[in-house]
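Re: the multi-chain job from yesterday

Posting the exact lines I submitted so nobody has to dig through the queue logs.
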Amino acid sequence: MLAGQLMDLRSMLHSQGVIFAYSGYVTEPVLSGVGEALKQKLTIDDADTKTLRSVFAIFVEQMQNIIRYSAEKAHQALPPASDVGALKEIRYGILTIGREGNDYVVCAGNLVRQVDVPRLKERLIRIRNMSKEELKALYKEQLRADPEEGSKGAGLGFMEIARRATQPIDFDFADVDDEYSFFALKATI
Amino acid sequence: MRDKLDIEATSRTPAVVFDFANNHLKLAGESYPEDVTEFYRPVFDALDAYLRKLDKGSCRFDFELIYLNSSSAKAVMMLMDKLEAAAKKGAAVDVYWFYDKEDDTMQELGEEFGEDLETAKFHLEKMPG
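And the result, structure tokens for all chains:
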């Protein structure tokens, strides 16, 4: 029963070409650890340098998007006395890395608030439809701009993913309830 | 002012070798820190203090980065801005961007940073080996 259930889960992932799968709360040390294993696997696969760096770069941006922006989170009721003000939050997401033919695919999914969906969609459509040259120009512009309200990074993550990917990014949203939607982003390298 | 700033590389942060006595500064390795602001703050502070004293002197800054994430790109841009500002005030600043010839993304990124340097001299070179 136990082995059967886990094996089914593994087989399902395997049949979709998934090599790595992480579903759960994501922290920076998780990113470091999975990242190291990913680099090793890509080296074993004898991936060329550019592919290795691109898969890794996209993995980092996808993981950091979950860490910073997933709307599904857990936090301590009270921060430890020594660390007042630094409310420790952890955020939930799912990330897979797999193969599709000769390509690598990095998919990430997490909950987002319904109110943020239109703005996210608009940004992603814009980025998806851009040529590499247009992406380069927008990246430069954004590098110089002040980060958008609510941004915890440089606001460059999606652009970095699109620039490193060898095909246009793919994304989708699925309604969960009135408040939340599930957001999925796929990059092919 | 300190005559050097030496920070050892980790798997997620680059080596910082600021040899102020010899006016040779270097950032080398990978950059995707857990907290970009925390990592780069002392680097910015040391560079600011050094550049204030540099006046019309000369300095060389080597970027030898293998990989940087998008938030680190912003930090690198700020380093470039500081170097450009010092050059505009009369310092002779040479900025070297070394890239791995196998990774044209890092070459392109170097070109993009280089485009914004007007007074500081920009050099784009392949990493040796």
